[in-house]
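Subject: design request, 344 residues
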């Protein structure tokens, strides 16, 4: 009887150990699948229909668009909803984008080198892994495709910040939800239809040349640098940076660009998912808040104006001969603490 009890005890320990090892392997698989999803568009071509919803203070904003993507870097989005965007389309060729506004008969041309920066992508994924745990979830069907759900839990707060449903065969992210600190959904993206193919007419990705349409330059960002000090040196003024950042956030990239003719320094900080952007210039050019319901706030010995839309806060202020704008998906109090550390 004693021998039988001992054998049962050993078998139980083996089963527990095997279960723990399986759980560990599953977590490793989730991390590997997440990594694969970040690079899937570089080698997977597809077409589909996407619904995108963002929730804010005044309700939700939804858009629906058709998408055609030819790997590695040609994409076209054609909007079906809302009515204000119906018929508009965006062609992206690498870092260059062409936004066709049908109602106003114009094409807005912009570039953003970070879109085409594989080094930045790799660095950002490393940051994500250091701050978030990838938790495997159940299988679900999205757009007729079997997917694996992965939840991303912040290691410092224990909060689930994002859920992603990834195609088991292609690793393409077919659905994504982002959450506020209180657990409410702040954005939701989902493929309603998807088809993997590479039979698109080449012409749909051509640079738009439309008779009667004005060509309008949009905001363009140069190649970002991982050396923020180098970006600061090229700003042309005595730039400042925050002395305080929330746990997990690190400086990622910096770039200098012209925003409406004003030389502007942009410093980007991230924890792998959430971002904080600090914009600054020395030309006395403040952010135009006339279209928003801005409110005044004091933080320590500083005074600024803020606009809050859902989880996103924009805080602006001026001091030391500079104009600052701080943007992030953080609470107003947390953003104010960062702002106060820029010019203590």
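Subject: RE: design request

Done. Sequence follows.
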């Amino acid at each position: 009887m004693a021998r039988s009890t001992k054998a049962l005890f050993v078998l139980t320990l083996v089963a527990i150990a095997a279960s723990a090892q399986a759980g560990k392997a599953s977590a490793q698989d989730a991390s590997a699948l997440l990594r694969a999803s970040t690079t899937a568009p570089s080698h997977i071509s597809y077409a589909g229909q996407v619904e995108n919803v963002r929730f804010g203070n005044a309700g939700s904003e939804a858009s629906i668009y058709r998408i055609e993507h030819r790997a590695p870097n040609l994409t076209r989005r054609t909007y079906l909803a809302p009515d204000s965007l119906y018929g508009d389309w965006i062609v992206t060729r690498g870092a260059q984008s062409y936004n066709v506004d049908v109602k106003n008969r114009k094409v807005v041309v912009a570039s953003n080198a970070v879109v085409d920066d594989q080094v930045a992508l790799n660095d950002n994924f490393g940051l994500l892994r250091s701050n978030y745990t990838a938790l495997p979830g159940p299988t679900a069907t999205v757009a007729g495709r079997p997917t694996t759900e992965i939840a991303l839990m912040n290691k410092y707060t224990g909060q689930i910040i994002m859920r992603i449903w990834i195609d088991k065969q292609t690793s393409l992210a077919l659905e994504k939800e982002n959450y506020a600190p209180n657990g409410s959904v702040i954005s939701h993206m989902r493929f309603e239809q998807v088809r993997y193919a590479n039979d698109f007419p080449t012409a749909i990705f051509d640079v738009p040349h439309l008779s009667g349409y004005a060509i309008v330059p949009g905001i363009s960002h140069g190649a970002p640098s991982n050396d923020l000090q180098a970006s600061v040196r090229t700003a042309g003024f005595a730039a400042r940076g925050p002395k305080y950042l929330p746990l997990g956030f690190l400086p990622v990239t910096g770039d200098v660009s012209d925003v409406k003719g004003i030389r502007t320094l942009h410093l980007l900080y991230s924890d792998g998912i959430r971002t904080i952007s600090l914009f600054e210039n020395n030309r006395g050019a403040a952010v135009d808040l006339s279209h928003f319901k801005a409110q005044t706030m004091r933080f320590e010995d500083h005074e600024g104006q803020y606009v809050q839309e859902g989880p996103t806060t924009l805080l602006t202020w001026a001091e030391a001969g500079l104009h600052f704008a701080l943007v992030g998906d953080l609470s107003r109090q947390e953003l104010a603490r960062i702002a106060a550390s820029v010019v203590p």
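Residues 256 and 343 are 20 Å apart (CA to CA).
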